[in-house]
Specification:
alpha/beta, seven-stranded mixed beta sheet, Aspartate Aminotransferase, domain 2, 342 residues, four-stranded antiparallel beta sheet, 2 domains
Length: 342
């Protein structure tokens, strides 16, 4: 049974209310580097009032599913579920499995463990894929948040095979796959029947407020998840913008290259300040330092909000600045932090 602590949402990036409460004297606007989201979003040129004044037409959800299937390499639209955020999809998928043991490959995004507990599962944090094979279902994040660890496709498929022997389900959160090693995606492998691969639209396209994601799985599981979500799983705006953006191959390729260049620039900025980069993806970098708390506060007082981790107090995660002014603010604040140490 879930406890009150299990029900409460956990701390996450992007909470500027928390930043302002922690650093009330910081200069505005805050430079929010606490979330791994593309700071240069997909350009939405026009808004239609029909998105908000009418319910979506019945054909719009399957149309978006078909576009997503092509974009992500899924076998067909029947394998794709349109969902209002990956967290909802994890909750729905976990609810398909009878209460038992849920193994979460850690350390990782903590909300997945909380969601599994809410579905009635006993959660085990596993240190390796091998430790997950006997669970009723296993949850892995690939690339991982916050360290960017990449899990090989073959290793994940081997785990899925072992889980299938006793009716187990494998859920792989591929929220950061668009900007990373796409070759390791399981989107094309879901026909084996016990895999759910999750893709987040908002992170790569820089539109998290749209609340759009996709679960890619077998047609049987997809039908169950779609039925649970109902006929209007996402807004008309999400359907229209998602369809346009996922079909825009030129923007997608250009953005992948730009994000990789920005991530390398962030590596140089952090290393230049004497900070050790220990992981990340093209949307964020993770550092490890014995002065993480002091650096977090120094940056916060300068109006720069980064992600810290209670369970890993030596870690800080930095998202990408979206403008030259943002880069200059970060570089100046880091230089000042180095001067404070000398």
């Amino acid at each position: 049974m879930a406890t009150p602590g299990d029900v409460a949402p956990l701390a996450h990036g992007g909470d500027l209310s928390a930043a302002r409460a922690l650093f009330p004297g910081a200069p505005e606007p805050f430079l929010d580097l606490s979330a791994g989201i593309n700071p240069n979003p997909y350009p939405v040129a026009q808004f239609s009032s029909d998105w908000f004044t009418h319910l979506p037409e019945p054909g719009e959800v399957p149309r978006l599913a078909a576009i997503a299937a092509e974009a992500y390499g899924a076998p067909s639209a029947e394998h794709v579920v349109v969902s209002p955020g990956s967290q909802i999809a994890v909750a729905q998928a976990s609810a398909l499995v009878a209460p038992g043991s849920a193994a979460v490959l850690g350390p990782t995004y903590a909300e997945h463990a909380r969601t599994a507990r809410l579905a009635g599962h006993e959660v085990i944090e596993a240190a390796s894929l091998e430790q997950m094979a006997d669970s009723s279902h296993a949850i892995a994040v690939n690339p991982n948040n916050p360290d960017g660890r990449i899990l090989a496709k073959d290793a994940l498929l081997a785990l899925a095979d072992r889980l299938r022997q006793h009716g187990g389900l494998l859920i792989v959160d591929e929220a950061f796959m668009d900007a990373s090693s796409r070759d390791e995606s399981l989107a094309a492998e879901v026909g084996c029947g016990n895999i759910v691969a999750l893709r987040s639209f908002g992170k790569f396209f820089g539109l998290p407020g749209l609340r759009l994601s996709f679960a890619i799985t077998s047609p049987k599981i997809a039908a169950e998840l779609s039925a649970a979500l109902g006929p209007w799983p996402v807004s008309g705006a999400a359907l229209a913008i998602g369809a346009q953006a996922l079909a825009d191959k030129a923007w997608i390729e250009k953005t992948r290259s730009a994000l990789l260049a920005s991530a390398r620039r962030l590596d140089a900025v952090l290393s230049g300040a004497g900070l050790q980069v220990v992981g990340g993806t093209s949307l964020f970098r993770l550092i490890e330092t014995g002065r993480a708390e002091a650096l977090f506060r120094h940056l916060g007082e300068a109006g720069i909000f980064v992600r810290r981790f209670t369970e890993q107090p030596a870690w800080l995660r930095f998202g990408l600045p979206g403008s030259e002014q943002g880069w200059r603010r970060l570089e100046a604040a880091l230089r000042a932090s180095v001067s404070d140490q000398s």
